[in-house]
């Protein structure tokens, strides 16, 4: 079988969990899916890290225009500097025990340093993806869907967006998290010359100092406790890709 040209398509999440980066690591092109209705209080503007007293703690990005009447591409951060202070404050307790605290805090601080006048939530989240991929030495070739002029059909179903976008980009494979398998019809993809594939990533177990580990926290937590090379190796070697 010839090497596939695979595409991954996901909404731009705020410092998403480790599995998001496994998808990036196993695709050739990445589409930031920002053209549909914005949904407030989702992974796009919040995530979870360790709480100082144990358990999960929310970090969030307040928006100036959070509404279901906008697209994700139109979402604007209310106070970029204030949000940076809040997020970094909720990471400060890691300083006591996490071996990579300073490197991760520097990374997060840099993500919030958007160009003057840029308050786009999509750009903030994309900056986060870029920074993490650079830190983990993962190739990352993102394309912002709203900037691609793909002329997509109206009223596409949940499993159809990826089919149309991947087809227009000339892909021969589309890779999705295995948890979303039920949304997709492999026969429909095959009829368009696309291999439908699903990525399954086992949990990564790691010590979190004095706190009990909490599964599926933001990538920020994994970065605090693990060497970049270890995370990169895990993402590349532990993921399993299954045919649709």
List segments where confidence is low: pLDDT < 50 over at least 5 consecutive residues: none
Strand/helix succession = EHEEEHHHEHEHEHHE
Main sheet characteristics? 6 strands, mixed
**Number of structural units classed as domains:** 1
Arithmetic mean of pLDDT: 95
Strand order of the largest sheet: 5-2-1-6-7-8
Question: Helicity level, as a percent range?
Answer: 25-40%
Number of helical stretches of at least 4 residues: 8
Number of strands: 8
What percent strand?
15-25%
Using only CA atoms, what is the Rg? 18 Å
Assign the structural class, choosing from mainly alpha, mainly beta, alpha/beta, alpha+beta, or little secondary structure.
alpha/beta
What is the terminal separation in angstroms?
16 Å
Global morphology: globular
What does this molecule look like?
35% of the residues are buried. The chain has one domain. The protein is α/β, with parallel strands linked by helices and 244 residues long. It contains eight helices and eight strands. Helix 1 (18-25) links the parallel strand 1 (6-10) and strand 2 (29-32). It is globular and about 55 Å long. Helix 3 (101-111) packs antiparallel against helix 4 and helix 3 packs antiparallel against helix 7. The strands form two sheets. A six-stranded mixed beta sheet has the order 5-2-1-6-7-8, sandwiched between helices. Strands 3-4 form a two-stranded antiparallel sheet. The mean pLDDT is 95. It has helices at residues 18-25, 80-89, 101-111, 121-136, 160-168, 186-191, 219-225, 228-238; strands spanning 6-10, 29-32, 46-50, 56-60, 142-144, 173-177, 195-200, 240-243.
């Amino acid at each position: 079988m010839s090497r596939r040209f695979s595409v991954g398509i996901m909404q731009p999440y705020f410092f998403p969990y480790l599995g998001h980066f496994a998808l990036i690591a196993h695709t050739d092109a990445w589409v930031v899916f920002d053209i549909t209705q914005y949904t407030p209080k989702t992974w796009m503007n919040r995530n979870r890290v360790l709480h100082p007293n144990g358990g999960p703690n929310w970090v969030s990005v307040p928006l100036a225009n959070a509404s279901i009447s906008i697209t994700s591409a139109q979402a604007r951060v209310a106070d970029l500097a204030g949000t940076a202070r809040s997020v970094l404050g909720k990471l400060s307790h890691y300083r006591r025990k996490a071996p990579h605290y300073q490197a991760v805090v520097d990374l997060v601080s840099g993500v919030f340093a958007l160009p003057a006048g840029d308050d786009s939530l999509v750009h903030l989240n994309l900056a986060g993806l870029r920074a993490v991929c650079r830190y983990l030495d993962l190739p990352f070739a993102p394309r912002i869907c709203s900037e691609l002029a793909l002329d997509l059909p109206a009223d596409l179903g949940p499993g159809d967006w990826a089919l149309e976008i991947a087809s227009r980009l000339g892909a021969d494979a589309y890779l999705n998290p295995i948890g979303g398998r039920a949304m997709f019809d492999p026969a429909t993809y095959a009829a368009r010359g696309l291999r439908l594939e699903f990525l399954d990533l086992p949990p990564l177990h790691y010590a979190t100092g004095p706190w009990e580990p909490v599964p599926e926290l933001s990538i920020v937590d994994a970065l605090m406790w693990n060497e970049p090379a270890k995370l990169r190796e895990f993402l590349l070697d532990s993921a399993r890709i299954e045919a649709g």
